[in-house]
UniProtKB/TrEMBL annotation:
It comes from Streptomyces ambofaciens. Pfam families: ECH_1. InterPro entries: ClpP/crotonase-like_dom_sf, Enoyl-CoA_hydra/iso, Enoyl-CoA_hydra_C, Enoyl-CoA_Hydratase/Isomerase. The lineage of its organism: Bacteria, Bacillati, Actinomycetota, Actinomycetes, Kitasatosporales. SUPFAM superfamilies: ClpP/crotonase. This is Enoyl-CoA hydratase. Belongs to the enoyl-CoA hydratase/isomerase family.
């Protein structure tokens, strides 16, 4: 059963995470399906840009704790977004948590509604935002990220824009993104591909340098006793044993 809705209009391919009953959590199946859909869009000469959005009230709750993706597969998805020769634009009208923030950071441009909220919740279940740091660290304010990584606290769309996690926020996200999509439709496909290559060079350096180390860290932490306790506590809707 597909967890991804597809549509196209005037050269823009829209891919919508479409598993609202699971808060669009990144399962192994969804990661594989989204990676394949992005790859197809990158090869399609009729596609000028990709919009990545969602159904329901959550863009993505992060990794699906019941069916988590392999860390290497998540790296592959994030790298696919960054390397795609077409601009990828995130359209967010809901909440984003944990691994969903890595997907957001991998996009070239991101618009969020003022109703959206964000949080790096990994530390609260005993793991770290390891793999998603590949696109996040080169693109986001480091002092702000230190606080948000270490505390897991929630923040709003205005703060997300201030620290560089999203490009812009507004009450009407479609109004925010309308001039963006108009600009992309007016741009030469060759120019878009080469300009994106310039903009993503530092991000791809992080992938080349750090991906193996961070996937190993992610796998080690998810297999740890504290992560098992944290994930169990989350699913049981209680505080983990370390909360004081």
């Amino acid at each position: 059963m597909t967890a991804l809705a597809r549509s196209r209009a005037r050269g823009v391919q829209t891919l919508a995470l479409d598993s609202p009953h699971r808060r669009n959590a990144l399962s192994a199946a969804l990661v594989a399906e989204l990676t394949a859909a992005l790859t197809d869009a990158g090869r399609d000469t009729d596609v000028r840009a990709v919009v990545l959005t969602h159904t329901g009230t959550t863009f993505s709750a992060g990794a699906d704790l019941r069916d988590p993706p392999d860390p290497d597969a998540l790296v592959g998805l994030l790298r696919t977004v960054v390397e795609l020769p077409k601009p990828v634009v995130a359209r967010v009208t809901g909440h984003v948590r944990a691994g969903g923030l890595g997907l957001l950071a991998a996009c070239d441009i991101a618009g969020a509604s003022t109703a959206s909220t964000f949080a790096f919740t990994e530390v609260r279940i005993g793991v770290a935002p390891a793999v998603i740091s590949l696109p996040l660290l080169p693109r986001t304010d480091p002092r702000a990220l230190a606080r948000l990584y270490l505390t897991g606290e929630r923040f709003d769309a205005a703060e997300a824009a201030r620290i560089g996690l999203v490009t812009a926020a507004g009450d009407d996200v479609d109004a925010v993104l309308e001039p963006v999509l108009d600009g992309l439709r007016r741009a030469s496909p060759q120019a878009l591909a080469e300009t994106k290559r310039l903009l993503t060079a530092r991000v791809l350096e992080a992938f080349d340098r750090d991906a193996a180390q961070l996937t190993a860290l992610s796998a080690r932490l998810f297999a740890s006793p504290q992560a098992r306790e944290g994930m169990t506590a989350f699913l049981e809707r209680r505080d983990p044993e370390w909360v004081v």
